């Protein structure tokens, strides 16, 4: 089981150790990550579509996803509210938000990966014969994806030391991670899984393109679908929460977006909360992006 964790962690750390200066190569890496994500999500969908008793599996997944999303929502918001009470984050009154943002574009960006999984599911269910090599292909693609993600994190132009010295960002990230694991402990008895596997489900922190793939590779496509849907819904809920609460509770708004605070939800954080929120969001999102695969790997190896 320990070997499974190493397979997840080694490519990530190898990629993180490589410093690149060729901007064109970094651009290709970014495109490669996006392409690999959609490929693996499509393979996850094909595996789902070829499950025996697909309708029953999907019905069961609905309840599992709703329980996980609800527990994480309550635990995360309460924990982040307590963090804000203890270490309040003040916004500069002169740093005004930039105004409205195109929610349609953001929403489409959030649901596009879901479309890849649905397309794969339909393809696997209706058209393709049972493909025994799908899991091997998905595992190999996952290793390559993690290596590319390590390269991205290492060459994002961010100083790890400065990110870890951002007290608000680090505190928000650790609060979200801690409350997510606490929620996993509470709901574990309701899942037909070992405790460590439930904690892995709770450790995606909004990074749907990784959590669904890693969990699916270890526990099968049904549980990979649960992890994926949980983190996609976190991203969609964050789009609603951020503009509503960032003015009074910026830590809550930034934190609930999880790992997406450094990329997908960053524009709405900037426009709704102002420039002061950007370094905090980047620090929080980066820390969560780094520890998410580590925690999932360790929990799935337990």
TrEMBL record:
Transmembrane regions listed in the UniProt entry: 36-54, 66-86, 106-128, 140-158, 170-191, 236-256, 277-301
Single GO MF annotation: L-lysine efflux transmembrane transporter activity
Keyword Zinc annotated: no
UniProt keyword annotations, A-Z: Membrane, Transmembrane, Transmembrane helix
Pfam families (UniProt xref): Lys_export
GO cellular component, one term: plasma membrane
InterPro entries given in the database record: LysO (IPR005642)
Protein name (Swiss-Prot/TrEMBL): Lysine exporter LysO family protein
Organism: Marinobacter nanhaiticus D15-8W
